[in-house]
Amino acid sequence: MSSETPSAPSPVPVKLRKDRTSVKVHQHTMLLYYWPVWFFGLVFAVLTLLDNHRLAILPSDGQKLVATELTFKENRETDAVTNKKYEQGTDILYSEKHPADGSVENTSRIIANNAYFGVIYFTILLLVIFFTNVPLRGLTATLFLAAIIIVFLLLYSFGQLRNLAEKFLMLDVRINLAGYMMMAICMFVLWGIAFWLVDHRIYVEFLPGQIKVVTEVGEGETTFDSAGVEFLIQPTDPFRNHLLGLAWLGWAIKAVGLVRNKDWGLGTGDLIVTTGGSDRKQIHIANVIGLTEKRQAITEMLKKQRVLQESSS
Q1: pLDDT tens sequence across 273-284
Q2: Which residues contact 62 (CB under 8 A, 6 or more apart)?
Q3: Could you give the CA distance from residue 59 to residue 201 in angstroms, rounded to a whole number?
Q4: What's the predicted TM-score (pTM) here?
Q5: Which domain does 91 fall in, by range?
């Protein structure tokens, strides 16, 4: 009597995109997170241009500065101090020590009358520098937020919060239009060079059966067998990965329902890849854009390799 041997269950098909034959993750420098510096620099440049005030550079004897708005019976008249002619309604600023040299007839230095623009921009710059250089992952981020809340409550309890806020609002930090534009344009150029030219030369590429690694700009690819490869995503830094990494923007787009069933690939993360075999190596790829979506693709790619190995054996 013969018994029929049950056939082995067929492998579960992997839902991998048909057009995807590899998954490549790029490492980015910390300049990736400096987009608020050039973005808000352009924003405040536009606001300063719309405000359209002028900056006057005066001598050191500012206490003796005289501001005069002349009214004339005729269309043009000569100012007795500077011996210059001005249009009707022109503001004349001059120094008593140097009346001729200190006179300000007109200036092209455009500046905003609102002093809060400079304070806000300076605060943004300091926060970006801090969050890109001080990692706050997991519990550390929670403790940092808790410390801020505790300090805030203590200041409020002792009645010092209002005094601190008033002193902060008294700050007068002004940047003219050229200052905003220079900061924004220079930072954008550096950001663009890093993002489009340098960062794309450091990567890990996952293919069926192997991974290719480039960890330094200019070096050649190193190939590893994908068998036994493990990858780990480090705990996120909510300030760097979510706030500066624009993960919140992707969440907002999904929340309002502008785009459905699509991951915008926003937000960043740090990836650690451990190769297989006897000589195991750890490869760190920092500041990967859209790591959540790519993690799923990498998992599918490795599953595809295991399915191919099982079907061939």
Answers
A1: 998 877 888 999
A2: none
A3: 52
A4: 0.77
A5: 56-106
